[in-house]
Design brief:
- With 373 residues, the protein is α/β, with parallel strands linked by helices.
- The protein contains 13 helices and twelve strands.
- It has two domains: 12-41 and 277-370, Alpha-Beta Complex (Aspartate Aminotransferase, domain 1), CATH 3.90.1150.10; 44-272, Type I PLP-dependent aspartate aminotransferase-like (Major domain) (Aspartate Aminotransferase, domain 2).
- The strands form three sheets. Strands 2-8-7-6-5-3-4 form a seven-stranded mixed beta sheet, sandwiched between helices. Strands 9-12-11 form a three-stranded antiparallel beta sheet, covered by helices on one side.
- Strand 5 (161-167), helix 7 (179-189) and strand 6 form a beta-alpha-beta unit.
Length: 373
């Protein structure tokens, strides 16, 4: 019997086209809050570096130039309090390609293993990366606070695991995992832990946290400029931690020709080196989240500030997330994401991204007032 070919499923956000059409019927059009797509300005120095670096002529280093890695390592020291050094750090093209491609690379290293563990409520790329590599994608339950529950991992799955993914602050829920405990579990079970920390600068409950605080052995942190610096369009990030893991992955990536373009590396150095624009952005997101919480309350939908990130995780009153998604589109022109995009355990919720400027949120207020709410 011939092997069954892989047929890509519909891309989750493409399924929102009918919802967007409903929302667009409002005067002023749809308010796009389904995708975490930054709308605010990136730091001017980074934009200037894109056009003036002179790095477009030559092939860039796949691991990132010395200035790229030094800037990222200094950012880790300055903002997260970890002395790591650039030797344990390498560049990636944003982080989604890293997340989706990692299981394939890890399986080259350990062909005897076939399982990727990931949070049961999470961004879909963790599971899809496992699927694309021909691996088992095994979700790990989360608790009532949307934190990964390590006690639910079947030891048989741990024995087969190429890696465990965690995401803190989490997308879509904003949950904050105990990263020290996660690192300890990984070492005790000989399972590499990859911690997606792309929202770390937008931590609302307590200090910023990284798994690297627990030491680099057996763990890798993944970071991106997409959210931190409103640079999703340039695709720049890095992974850092365990020297053997980082070294192996970066060597394979060299052969694949995966590299951050030279001008983008120059822009990234400027962005990693500046914190003022990030603090301003954090203030914007906090205010938008609080404003959206108030607007949802006028619709009878009650939620609270997340532990981090810039999403609201809203329970559907009757458990029907698609019905709530359509209601938001009809009543206030908002396009949101139904929870099933983030796993079967998330079907009763809707995710709303606080990524639109005040002028768009003003439209929500006017529509609420017109409806007498």
């Amino acid at each position: 019997m011939s092997p069954t070919p892989f047929v890509p499923p519909p891309y989750p956000y493409d399924r929102l086209a009918p919802i967007a059409e409903i929302a667009a019927l409002h005067d002023g059009g749809a308010i796009e809050l389904s995708v975490g797509d930054p709308c605010d300005p990136p730091p001017p120095a980074a934009v200037a570096a894109l056009g003036g670096s002179g790095r477009e002529r030559n092939y860039p280093f796949s691991i990132g130039g010395a200035d790229y890695r030094d800037a990222a390592a200094e950012w880790i020291r300055r903002r997260l309090g970890v002395e790591l050094g650039s030797a344990k750090l390498a560049a990636c093209v944003g982080t989604k390609e890293f997340v989706a491609g990692l299981p394939h690379l890890l399986r080259l290293r350990r062909p005897d293993l076939d399982t990727v563990l990931y949070p049961a409520v999470s961004y879909p790329s963790y599971a899809m990366g496992a699927t694309l590599a021909g691996c088992r994608a095994v979700p790990v339950a989360v608790d009532d606070h949307w934190r990964i529950d390590l006690s639910t991992i079947d030891p048989a799955d741990a024995q087969r695991a190429l890696c465990l993914w965690v995401n803190t602050p989490g997308n879509p829920t904003g949950g904050l995992d105990d990263l020290d405990a996660v690192a300890e579990w990984g070492r005790a079970n000989d399972v590499p832990v990859f911690s997606d920390e792309c929202y770390v600068e937008f931590t609302w409950d307590g200090p910023r946290r990284t798994i690297l605080t627990a030491g680099a052995a057996g763990v890798v942190a993944v970071h991106s400029l997409s959210k931190r610096s409103n640079l999703a369009g340039v695709r720049a990030g890095f992974y850092a931690g365990d020297a053997d893991l980082v070294g192996y992955i970066s060597e394979v990536r060299k052969h694949l020709g995966i590299m951050v373009p030279g001008p983008v590396q120059a822009a990234a150095v400027a962005a990693w080196s500046d914190d003022a624009h990030v603090d301003e952005q954090a203030t914007r997101y906090r205010k938008r989240l609080q404003r959206l919480i108030g607007q949802l309350a006028r619709l009878g939908l009650h939620t609270s500030m997340p532990g981090g990130a810039f999403y609201l995780w809203v329970a559907a009153p009757d458990g029907d997330a698609w019905a709530l998604t359509e209601r938001l589109a009809r009543e206030v022109g908002v396009v949101a994401s139904p929870g099933e995009f983030y796993g079967p355990a998330a079907v009763g919720h809707v995710r709303i991204a606080a990524v639109q400027p005040d002028e768009k949120l003003d439209l929500i207020d006017r529509r609420l007032e017109a409806a007498g709410l």
